[in-house]
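sorry for the late reply, my laptop died twice this morning and i had to redo everyting from scratch. anyway the thing you sent over, i finally got around to it. pasting the sequence first so we're on the same page, its 398 residues, then the predicted structure underneath. double check i copied it right bc i was rushing
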Amino acid sequence: MKNKKILISGASIAGPTLAYWLSHYGFEVTVIEKAPELRLGGQNIDVKGPAKEIAQMMGIEEEIRARNTTEIGTRFVDSKNKTVAEFPTGESIGLTQELEILRGDLVKILYEHSKKKAEYRFGDHITSIDQNDEMVKVGFASGKEASFDILISAEGIGSKTRELAFGRQPDFKYLGLHSAYLTIPKQPSDSKWARWCNAETGIVYLMRPDNYGETRASVTFLAEEDAYKGLSPEAQKQALIRRIKGSGFESERIIEGIHQSKDLYFDRVSQVKASKWSIGRVVITGDAAWCATPIAGKGTDLAMAGAYILAGELFKADNIEQAFNAYENRMRPYVEKCQKLPPGIPWVVYPTTKFGVFVLNRLVAAVGSKPVKWLIAKLSGNKKADQKEIILPIYKVN
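ok and here's the structure:
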C-alpha cells in the first residue's frame, strides 16, 4: 500500500519506531502523544535480539552504545550489602546486556530520527473513533477532528484508544506482584554494578547506576491484585512506605527517595492477553497489544519488532486486512513465547521467610561460582550462533 495517511497514538518506543519505518516506506505519518512533551523517565532497558537488529538497520546502534548507562554487571547482595554472586555484562544469568540504555534516552533517539519525516503533536489524545470502509474519523480532547486511513495504538498497558476501538479491555494476567520505580540520589554504596537484594516478606530491591550520576531504584513485591487499587499518588507513596519499612538493605534510603520523588511509578505487574490486535482500520501494537512485563525482559525486543513488522506488512500488502493478518501471524508466536514464564516464576524469586531468602542466596552463589559459570558457558557455546528468536523480513523499497 502507498500514500496512506496514518495516525499513531503513543510516543514511547513502539510509536516512534513505527513512525520511522512508515515514513521510510512513504506513508504520511502523524504521532499524537497525551503528555505535553516526550516522557523521558524510566529505568534501564536493554537493546538485544530483534531490537538490536532493527537499531542496526536504522543506523542508531552507535548512538545507543554512546548513551550506555555505565552499568558493568549485576551483583546479588544480601540484606547487609555483602556480595553473594556477581555476573558481569553479557553473562546469561545477569541483568546487564551489551547495549544498556535508559528508556528515556532510547525514546529520544527514536524521536530524533523519526521526526524528520513524521509530524508529532503533543498534549492531546483521542476521545472518539468512528470508522467505515473508507476511513477512520478521530476526535481529540482538544476539540479537533481528523480522518485517517489507519489508526495505530502504540500506547501502554491501560490504552484508552484500544478500549474506544474494541469496546472493551482485553484480558489481563496478574503475576502476583506490584512494582515501584524511581530515581534517587547516588550514594557511596552505589557503583557501576547493579545490585539485586532479596528481603524478607517477598520483596526484591534493585539499584542500578545511570549515566546522569543518579541511581535508578525499583521495589517489587508480592501483593494481592487490588491491594493498592485506586490510590492517589500521595496515598501510593504512603502505602509503599508502609510495605517496605523495616525490611532491611537500603529500605530507609529508598523511603526517603519515595518522599522526595517526582517520577515515582507504582502499579500491578500484569500481562496483556488480547485475542485480536485489529478491528477494521484500527490496530494495536506494543504494550497495548501484548505487555509481557519487565519480568520477561523482552519489552524493547517486542516493541521494536512489532513496530518494524507492522510497518513492513502495511507497505507490502495490497490492503489493510491483509497487512494486519500478516502482522499478527508473524508476531503472535513470538509474543506467546515471550509471555511464557519458567515454572515457579515469579514466586520462587520472592521468598517470604528468612530461611527462604537464605536458600535462594545459596543457590545464586552456586550458580555464580566459577565451575558452574564454566559449565553454563560451555553449554551455551553449543547452541547455534545464528539461532534467532524471530526472523525479521526485509521489506525492500524499490
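DSSP finds twelve helices and 18 strands in the chain.
thats about all i looked at so far, will dig more tmrw
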